[in-house]
Amino acid sequence: MNTNKIANHSLNFAIRSAVNLWAIAPLAMTWLTSIAKAVARFFSSLPSKLFASPNRFQRPRKRKSFRTSLSHGLALVLGVILGLDGLPMLPLQASPVDAMEPVEVAQAVPAQRASVAALSSNSFVTSAVNQVGPAVVRIDTERTVTQRINPAFDDPFFERFFGDEFFRSAPRERQRRLTGQGSGFIIDSDGSLLTNAHVVDKADRVVVTLKDGREFEGTVKGADPVTDLALVKIDAKGDRLPVASLGDSDNVQVGDWAIAVGNPLGLDNTVTLGIISTLKRSSAQVGIPDKRLDFIQTDAAINPGNSGGPLVDANGRVIGINTAIRADAMGIGFAIPINKAKSIQAQLAKGQRVPHPFVGIEMRTLTPELARKNNEDPNALLELPVTTGVLVVNVLPDMPAAEAGLRRGDVIVSAGGKRIESAEAFQRAVENTAIGKTLKLQVKRGNRDLTINVRTAELQDLS
Questions:
Q1: Per the residue annotation, which of 282, 283, 307, 422 is the catalytic one?
Q2: For a surface tag, which of 92, 330, 356, 440 has the fewest beta carbons within 10 Å of its beta carbon?
Q3: Which residue out of 183, 192, 198, 283 is catalytically annotated?
């Protein structure tokens, strides 16, 4: 403790002592008076010989003076002791209070706020968006469509009424320029980016805008309507391009964090947060029967304009491509698993058609409850086996299923040696079979069990 602190403590001690003595003065005087009287009575009762003197004429005065002085002295000493009792002693070391001086407390508050701010700025959402955000792009498209001005011009009555000359001179069609907007993300430093096929469908011009404001003309290298995936290429002319890190959608679990990044409703660089709601939601369940997809379902907000943008995990890796929403629901969005895009990326980059196996049936999932309900209906066209499988609702003519001998009312219970319990499971079994290969089916037809071999064909051949 330095000299200034000792001086301050001494001054404080003196002031506190004076205040304490002043506060107890009335009570102290009462105590001192009582104590003095008691001491005087005590000494007065002592034998006179204790105070004997050779001169007897001066004995009483000296005895009285000695007694009085002694009693007053003892009272004074006792009063001082009582007055000083309980007063604080000067500390020999720095008090703990010294460690909490006001300047130190004032410094502690900003430090605490700084730590909270650091925690907030380092959230996993911020880190993930900072990692993938620069690679997310806006895609603006233009395309020309031709429309007939009036269908009445095709009516022979109006042609006879107005004459051939009028119809030959009147324009029957007009062209319009339609614009669209979506999202995408760069997957390669050479300028390759992924988006949805419906974002760039029939586009005459594609403009890609990066987060930093740079614009590039884009070329659609390949598109696959069945999986709704497309690959667009831009020429950065040597400029450095940010690239998104691709994850593994097979490792995604229900309940994982999901971050959607894109340009919904034209609002660039928008981020929404949610979780993975479910996996392998079939396109048929979503209401898109013409697709061949098992979607990732999420409650992260997805809106028009988000299409083609990335769905990102907590580590900033792309796990899906935002694709669809349900118009009749809130908090439900769907994304194509990124592994599906990886599997056809090379074909899209080369402009090749992506083959999709096909057998040519319309089907629905059959359960024992549905079978019993059908069999109890007196107007049912046929009796169904009470089992779980896939009911063949219709067989398209001249297609692989028809050529193999499948009929309406057949129930497929196994495909490729694996139990089939839903239409989605059968669709996956067909999709996993190479085109031109044979798929072995176990079928129930009434009371009979049949084995039917179907050779798959390519879906695009139908067009």
A1: 307
A2: 92
A3: 198
pLDDT in tens, 229-247: 999 999 988 888 999 999 9
Instruction: Give the closest residue to 308 by CA, choosing from 438, 156, 186, 153.
Output: 186
307 carries an active-site annotation: yes
**Can you spell out the DSSP letters for 56-80?**
GGGHHHHHHHHHHHHHHHHHHHHHH
228 assigned to active site: yes
Single out the residue in 353, 368, 402 at which a domain terminates. 353
pLDDT tens digit sequence for 174-212: 677 888 889 999 999 989 999 999 999 999 999 999 998
| Amino acid at position 247, single letter | G
Residue 424 binned pLDDT confidence (cut-offs 50, 70, 90):
confident
Instruction: Determine the residue type at 236.
Output: A
Q: Are residues 235 and 313 in the same domain?
A: yes
Respond yes or no: is residue 198 known to be catalytic. Answer: yes
| 257 φ, ψ (degrees, to nearest 5) | -65, 145
| Distance from C-alpha of 317 to C-alpha of 313, rounded to nearest angstrom | 6
* Annotated active-site residue in 140, 224, 228, 313: 228
Query: At 100, is the secondary structure helix, strand, or coil?
Result: helix
Residues 311 and 296: their CA atoms lie apart, in Å, by 9
| Together in a domain, 78 and 209 | no
User: Which two three-digit tokens encode residue 5?
Assistant: 């602190």
DSSP structure string for 225-265: TTTTEEEEEE--TT-----PPB--GGG--TT-EEEEEE-GG
What's the mean pLDDT in 133-146?
Answer: 89
pTM above 0.70, yes or no: no
pLDDT on residue 24: 55
**Which H or E element spans position 445?**
strand 438-445
Q: Which residue segment(s) compose the domain that 7 sits in?
A: 3-90
Between 86 and 363, the higher pLDDT residue: 363
